[in-house]
Every structure is written in C-alpha cells, then in structure tokens.
Design brief:
Distance between the termini: 24 Å
Strand order of the largest sheet: 11-8-7-6-5-4-3-14
Structural class: alpha/beta
Order of helices and strands: EEEHEHHEHEHHEHEEEHEEEHEH
Mean pLDDT: 88
Strand content: 15-25%
Shape: globular
Low-confidence stretches: 1-32
Length: 373
C-alpha cells in the first residue's frame, strides 16, 4: 500500500456522471497550473485497445466542455508522428511499430489510425502535424536534410489532402526530429547542423501550406557548469534561432528532462539521484530562452515548457526507448511539486509528453467500488 499525501491546494475533484457510475477525477494540481497542450504518438492506436486511447480523448472532451478553468482543459494536440518508418533498431527507433510490422510500405501515412483519431481533432485549438523518423538521417549533411524535408513535405501534403478540410480544425507543423538545447548552444557543429535541418524543413513544409511551427528539443544531456557556460549557451542559441529564415514563426516547447533523468524500478521506486530540477535546470533555461526570444521575437514567437509526465525503467543501465528502456508514469507527488514550482516561477506550460501519461496521472484515482456519496 502506498501512503502519498498531497497538500490540500493540489486537490481538485470533479465528478462526471455516467449511467450507474460516478467517476471521481482527482487532479494533482490547482486549475491554474494544468498542462495546456499534449503530444500524441499516432502508432499507439495500432498497439492499444480502442477503449484505452478513446478514454484519453474523452477526458479531453470533458475538460473542453467544462471550460478553461477545468484542470483537464487542453488547448493543442501535437502529433509526434503521422507515418511509420523502418529502422535497424530492435527497440523504438521508429516511434512505434515499423512499417513492415504493420504490413505497410516504408514511410506510409497511418491512415487507419489517423482516421480513428480524426473525429477528436476539433476538440483542440490547433493540431500540429509531425512526420516520422528518416532512417540514417544525418543533420550534419545538407543532402540528408533535404531528403528528410522532402519526405516531411510529402507526408504533410498527404495528411492535409485527407484531413485538411475538417470542420473547426486549425493546423500547424511539428518538427519531429529533436535536438539538445545545451549541445546546440555550446557546440557550433551541432548548432549549424540543427540550423540547416530546421531551415530546410521549414521551407519545404511552408510550400505545402503556410502554417506556424512547433519544435520540442530537450534540455538534457548536460547542464552548464558555470555562468560562463550559461552565457555561451545563450549566445549560441541566439545565433541559431535568430538566423532562421524570416516568415516561419517557431514555438519552442522544450523538454524539461525531469522525466528522462529519473529512473524507476518495480514495485514502486523512483531514483532522483541524477534528476534535473525545476529551480536548478528549468527556470534558468526558460529565463535564458526568453532573452533569446527578445532578440528575434518574429522568429522565436513562443517559449514554453514540455512537462515530462514520465520516468524510465532502464535497460541494463541505459535510458531511452531506442535502448530498450520502459517509459512509465511519473510519481504523482513529484508532478504536483514540479507544477507548483513552475506556477510559482510563472513558467508557461506548453505541449507535454504525453497524452497517455497525462491521463494516467491526472485521473489516476478516477474509479471507485464504493457507492457514490
């Protein structure tokens, strides 16, 4: 039995009536600090029972019907991938089942899954369209970036041809391939490679349809060791984002790395010895990116935090899906504390990873065998 107590200000109870049942949806945080947008991986629909993923969207629907004060009110949906791919990795190099495992040609649009999800798109203010992973993509090679951008544009056009005229749905682009903010800021080669990747992708996608862009690089791999390194990272990121082409507004919702730096082991143990924190990592990163944004506000239009609602059960000491780690729900108490810290420091919450973990954590106590009272 687990005995986790939450401060009273973190408790918010809402009941949704169903025939013969009342579900008590317990939120871990006050309504003013709930997550504003969510990521979705399309290939989850090919792996999970329909009742499982539909419950995620029905909770979003309940939040939208209740209005912005609901802790379940979600603004945007970001589709991490819309197509399958092929990869030599035996783990998650393709963000889900490979095309060959689904009986599809390489880089096929996931129409079966997207058709099932499409009736929920109108629930969101905007749906951001991702792409897939290009096997052997090399950001440092312009030809490889052009190949990837061509694939993104092809998939984006296929997606918008099929779903682009849905009533009441606004669209945006999502750049699926991620990067590391510290590496981009401190390493000129990494910075130039990412600049070419982003610029090439933006130009290709904008020819399909002029839309805004969303990107979610990580805040991970390292933390600047001193003020000199913080200054160096800031200068490097200012160079990157302010050098992007004009007319391609980019929202940056960076991964806070407070999930990927935490390890988990059954039955219920979270190891925070290497974990990033709100005050040591996230807050100074946001402040730095806000200064970068002021230098080129027409290019970097938005800076928010991607709250990672998960932890990792390591595979032989290795993090990451690509290395076989299991991605599990974060500790609810830690999420409550983290969101409270973000609220205290006036940090804007952006698209968070991910709808599955959000649902499990925010509605973790939503069923009871007792008679409602």
């Amino acid at each position: 039995m687990f005995n986790i107590k939450f401060p009273q200000e973190f408790a918010f109870v809402m009941s949704i009536h169903r025939p013969m049942h009342v579900f008590f949806l317990i939120c871990l945080c006050a309504p003013t600090i709930h997550c504003m947008s969510l990521f979705m991986r399309t290939t989850w629909l090919s792996e999970l029972p329909e009742v499982t993923w539909k419950a995620w969207f029905e909770l979003v629907r309940a939040g939208r019907e209740a209005g912005p004060e609901s802790p379940y009110y979600i603004e945007d949906l970001a589709l991490q991938n819309i197509a399958c791919c092929e990869s030599a990795s035996k783990y998650r190099g393709c963000l889900g089942p490979k095309c060959s495992e689904l009986g599809l040609p390489p880089y096929s649009l996931l129409t079966k899954e997207l058709d099932q999800m499409a009736p929920y798109f109108h629930l969101f203010n905007r749906v951001h369209i991702g792409s897939t992973i290009l096997e052997n993509h090399n950001m440092a090679n312009h030809s490889s970036n052009k190949e990837y951008a061509t694939l993104m544009a092809k998939l984006g056009e296929q997606f918008l041809t099929r779903y682009g005229n849905l009533s009441g749905v606004s669209w945006g682009w999502y750049l699926t391939e991620e990067g590391s903010l510290p590496q981009m800021g401190l390493n000129p080669e990494v910075r130039n490679a990412n600049m070419d990747y982003i610029s090439t992708a933006m130009q290709a996608l904008q020819l399909v349809r002029p839309l805004s862009f969303l990107w979610s690089p990580s805040n991970g791999d390292m933390t600047p060791a001193n003020q000199s390194q913080w200054d160096q990272e800031e200068a490097g990121l200012r160079n990157l984002f302010c050098s992007l082409p004009s007319g391609y507004p980019l929202s940056l919702h960076f991964q806070d790395w407070l999930g990927q730096s935490v390890s988990f082991e059954f039955p219920f143990y979270y190891n925070y010895s290497q974990a990033f924190t709100c005050t040591r990592n996230t807050v100074p990163t946001v402040r730095m990116l806000q200064r970068v944004q002021k230098a080129c506000p027409a290019k970097l239009v938005d800076v928010k935090v991607n709250v990672e609602f998960f932890a990792e059960r390591l595979n032989n000491g290795m993090h990451g899906e690509d290395n076989g780690a299991n991605i599990v729900n974060a500790n609810p108490a830690e999420i409550a504390n983290r969101l409270a810290c973000y609220k205290q420091n006036n940090l804007a919450i952006g698209a968070c990873w991910a709808i599955s973990h959000w649902y499990s954590i925010f509605a973790y106590a939503n069923e009871t065998v007792y008679h409602p009272y």
